[in-house]
Amino acid sequence: MSWRPQYRSSKFRNVYGKAASREHCFDGIPITKNVHDNHFCAVNARYLAIVTESAGGGSFLVIPLEQTGRIEPNYPKVCGHQGNVLDIKWNPFIENIIASCSEDTSVRIWEIPEGGLKRNMTEAVLELYGHSRRVGLVEWHPTTNNILFSAGYDYKVLIWNLDIGEPVKMIDCHTDVILCLSFNTDGSLLATTCKDKKLRVVEPRSGRVLQEASCKNHRVNRVVFLGSTKRLLTTGVSRWNTRQIALWDQEDLSMPLIEEEIDGLSGLLFPFYDADTHMLYLAGKGDGNIRYYEIGSEKPYLSYLMEFRSPAPQKGLGVMPKHGLDVSACEVFRFYKLITLKGLIEPISMIVPRRSETYQEDIYPMTPGTEPALTPDEWLSGVNRDPILMSLKEGYKRNSKIVFKAPVREKKSVVVNGIDLLENVPPRTENELLRMFFRQQDEIRRLKDELSQKDIRIRQLQLELKNFRNSPKNN
């Protein structure tokens, strides 16, 4: 009997990655050298934003997508922060609104003028102060307009209602720095990973922890909800210091469903999930390759498809929303790869090979669009609603009619859950305590040296005085 290989039926098994030609890249960009574990890049259907290296504060570029090629060194920047910018995210419903957070403890909302920047922008439409330490993450709510989440090094997650420009809720269940935030499809659940090696599923409006996993064998770094499958995927490090992914049931985090080792490299693994195609992409910080898998509902759950390879290492990756893809080329995902050594942003398209040039409805199902399903008041009152879907055939690149209006307010104390956040003294992180300890040790050594020098000088003066008194002239 002849042996025949068993092929798994999948329309995505031949998906391939295609890097853009040099003239369609963005060149000459001074990408930030900050070592914070973020992407430093955000993209939507109109603009590309990249955090840049700058002196005396933090800044980022906002470039219209059609303006490819070499970017001039004096290109206008968004440069209102007093500290390094650590994260940027575009509003999913208003394409010219972007949120940024920084080491200066603030979160700022910027409105990009039509056609991009003509001069440096220093004034944000809204400045949000509530964290007492630097802010490392910002995330927009997936179905509600003007609800923004921010996570700081004070171990708190603040929920901002941008209609009033104030924090309305505080999630205070973490005991160390928060590494990642991820929402489920309707935004009713928030998954977080933390430096205390715990994975949590939180009800965001109450701050109640619904599930918690203490990951001793699998030290979690990043987490992503797998659409509406009620599963989570985390990336992290195994007990043997190999890179690893784990799949979890969101209603039972006692044990992962599966764990799979990827390789022995040290760079952080960033996961990206496409709920429309059920494809998972894994890209390592400092790697040049992007692996991709298909997620199934039955064991083994995870099926390896292929790997896009490139010699240039990536610092971070921006992801184009679905409504910004080129459906005529059967493009199902697009990355914007940050190559720091070359100062280059390289688009990488993931393409399903098809002979027909007509619209491929089986690879483009209805997808979340650019219209919010809820207002901030509705969501805060406890309403959950699935995102409003759009067809990429009918509503391709349809512009949203929503306009952002910044509230007018006076600066005052920020009180959430009965705590004034601006007055509340935060706990110290382990690194901060170590730095403080070493500074104190250096100061103690310096003071001891000064005292010993003074003691030596005093003894010299005493000896001189004794010699002077015993000299024959004074007798």
Structural commentary:
By secondary structure, the protein is mainly beta. The protein folds into 2 domains: 16-395, YVTN repeat-like/Quinoprotein amine dehydrogenase (Methylamine Dehydrogenase, Chain H), CATH 2.130.10.10; 420-461. It contains 2 helices and 34 strands. The chain has a 4-stranded antiparallel β-sheet, with no helix packed on it. A 4-stranded antiparallel β-sheet has the order 3-4-5-7, with no helix packed on it. Strands 8-9-10-11 form a 4-stranded antiparallel β-sheet, with no helix packed on it. A hairpin with a 5-residue loop joins strand 4 and strand 5. It is globular. The N and C termini lie far apart (124 Å). Mean pLDDT is 87; it is low at 1-6.
| C-alpha-based Rg, rounded | 27 Å
> pLDDT average, as an integer?
87
User: What is the overall silhouette?
Assistant: globular
Helix/strand structural class: mainly beta
Output the CATH class name of the largest domain.
Answer: Mainly Beta
Please identify, by name, the CATH architecture of the largest domain: 7 Propeller
Total domain count: 2
Characterize the largest beta sheet: strand count, sense, and whether it forms a barrel: 4 strands, antiparallel
CATH topology of the largest domain: Methylamine Dehydrogenase, Chain H
CA distance, first residue to last residue:
124 Å
The total beta strand count reads: 34
Q: Give the strand line-up of the largest sheet.
A: 1-30-29-28
Q: Assign the CATH superfamily of the largest domain.
A: YVTN repeat-like/Quinoprotein amine dehydrogenase
Please indicate the percent range of residues in DSSP E strands (runs of 2 or more).
35-45%
User: Which spans of ≥5 residues are poorly predicted at pLDDT below 50?
Assistant: 1-6
Count up the helices.
2
